[in-house]
Amino acid sequence: MWLNSKDGFSQINQLGQNRTPFLFIISYDKTKIFAQPLETLESDIFYKLQDWRNYPVKKRTEAFTFSKIPVDFPIYRNSMEKILEEIRSGNTYLLNLTFRTPIESSFTLKEIFTYARAKFKLYFKDEFICFSPEMFVETEGNTIATYPMKGTIDADIPDAEHRILNDEKEMAEHIMIVDLMRNDLGIIGINVKVEKFRYVDRIKAGKKELFQVSSKITATLPENWRDDLGTLLSSILPAGSITGTPKKSTVEIISDIENYERGFYTGVFGIFDGESLRSGVMIRFIEKENNRLFYKSGGGITLDSDATSEYEELIDKVYLPL
Q: Where does the record place the Chorismate-utilising enzyme C-terminal domain (predicted)?
């Protein structure tokens, strides 16, 4: 079922060349890839990418329970200190630090997926789900667009939108990711443009609402981009918004500092409909392991980061948008 990196991207190239509509799922480290035509998609795989979906809408009618057991703050702070040492040494400027959090809910994975409100959702065989607010890339004609999301604040904080947009640390973090994604799109296209810079979306986060800051970057792809779809995706993965910058050294630091395997968390999934591509970053992610549920979340660390604030953001991102 899971293909290795070489075979997986080759399969995506083949499906693209044949203009076959298909679903793809790519792990964070690109070592596990799923690519299956939509017409033969297994019955226990469901997706939603904005208005593309393969399951009926169903509204929640019953109450549910949800609890979380976050990593202890001293453990988080210790990891963050290691990152700050790497930043001071010039090995990274921005690194997305993540942890996994044991959770419990009266709802099953399937129920959480079904009722969750999000633009990008995936349910895979009762193994994992994501309900992500973040697009990775989409195409329209020969134009590719990406929407890096970097910067989060509790919407209930007084003047929250003004605060997040005028926060120097958040501004610096966002600029670094926009610059990284501009460079990534420049690998596969030309005429790279930042079309919208730092706009705010309101996102339901359980009992809270969050403001999240994004930008829109576009580029022009070669006419034959559909024939090399796997190669194109491989060239720009993993996503810059969930790694950091510079990407290569930052990914190496992440593997040394994080105390677990990300797996499919912070990977990407998407649909090619035979003409266009639409994909999401697999954040807001829950996986099942030995009948226990684990939620994976994180945030960007820069030299100006405050450990308490970053720890609170990590916990805020562990929620069910029901």
A: 75-317
Q: Are 36 and 42 in contact (CB under 8 A)?
A: yes
Whole-model pTM above 0.85? yes
173: its two tokens: 């973090």
Predicted local confidence at residue 41, as pLDDT: 97
Crossing angle of the two packed helices 73-88 and 307-316, in degrees rounded to 10: 120
- pLDDT greater than 90 at residue 170: no
In the chain, the domains with their CATH numbers are 5-316 (3.60.120.10)
Q: How far apart are CA 88 and CA 82, in angstroms?
A: 10
Phi, psi of 28 (to 5 degrees): -55, -45
Of how many residues is the chain composed?
322
If we measure between CA atoms, which residue out of 15, 21, 23 comes closest to residue 42?
23
Does residue 64 contact residue 46 with C-beta atoms inside 8 Å? Answer: no
Q: Residue 205: is its pLDDT beyond 90? A: no
CB atoms closer than 10 angstroms to residue 296: 26
CA distances from 108 to 21, 126, 132, 178, 221 (A): 30, 9, 18, 37, 41
pLDDT of residue 281: 96
Please say if the pLDDT value at position 152 is more than 80. Answer: no
Place of tokens 């679903």: 23
Check residue 143 and give its pLDDT. Answer: 98
- C-beta of residue 144 within 8 angstroms of C-beta of residue 138: yes
In degrees and rounded to multiples of 5, residue 73 shows phi and psi of -55, -45
Q: Is residue 204 scored above 90 in pLDDT?
A: no
